[in-house]
Every structure is written in C-alpha cells, then in structure tokens.
Amino acid sequence: MNISTTKIETLLAERGMTKAALSESCGISRQNISTIIRRGTCEPKTAGKLALGLGVPVAELIEEARA
Fold it and tell me: I need a surface site. Which of 24, 35, 45, 48 has the fewest CB within 10 A?
C-alpha cells in the first residue's frame, strides 16, 4: 500500500511528535517507521496502526494512485 510520506511528516510536525513518540503510540518500532517513511509503502494493517497513532483515518495517509 502506498502511503503519503509527506502527510505523515506533516502530521508529526503538527503534533510536535517524534518518530519515537509515534512508535510508542502505535506499537511499531521506530526503525520500521523510518523505513516506511523512506519507502512510502507498508502493509494495510501497518497503515491502520500508523493512522491510529496519529489520530487520523487511514484514508488520510493513503497516497492517491496516479494514472
């Protein structure tokens, strides 16, 4: 699943959160969060955990497919 890394970084900045804080709130390792942000992809279940940790709907993190 493609996710918007810009959106994740923006949400972290808006909330004053670090990747370590996000890691604690969603149960994903900090290293895995960094990898997800670098690659821009993750499994749907992981996207759900990220969204929960950031307090947003999963749809807000999904990168729109380009035709």
Answer: 45
